[in-house]
Write a structure and sequence with these properties.
alpha/beta; globular; about 210 residues; about 15% strand; 7-stranded parallel sheet; 7 strands
Length: about 210
Amino acid sequence: MRAPSKQIVIAGYFGFGSAGDEAILASLCEVFRGAAQPFRLVAISGNSPENAATYDLPVCDWSDAAVISETVRLSDAVVIAGSSLFDPSAAAVVTTTQPAFLAPAVLSAIHHKPLLLYGISLDGPGVKDMHPALRAVCRAAALITVCDQITFDLLVSFGITASKIAVTADPVWMWAPRAPGRGISLPKPVLGVALANDELPIPEAD
């Protein structure tokens, strides 16, 4: 007899128009659904109808605390995915007051569910201002994967056990985009723009 699917709640900056975070959700859907024992996923999103239709999964709205709490209670684990919820500016969009990552982490503790922080990076401005809450959440997490050594070193400096932190690739790298179809018809000319960190050195052309 096949074991019943486990349910995982995925909290992220989904449904707010961030292409990178939508790609993270898409990659997680592919990975968990393709596992030997598929998982049932429930996402927490700022645009429930759109995310539910796009990824074919149940979605809780960030504004409905009661539904999120009940969903976590009925789940087997909680995943906070990506770095955006750890950006202080996200609080103004998602929760307006507390750090955006705090609510799913607190609910996982209240309902005694394992917490995973997945694919995070904490080298942005304002991180030190979140130090007490961030340290508490990281200590509560069963496993943390980070995208860079800077974040690893920062968490260790917070007193987080190094053995439960793994430095690995950004979760988007797991995403296998669908083969292109007919494509999008755009009026010509078309200008493509790639944004870059202007603090990084740019090599001079030969």
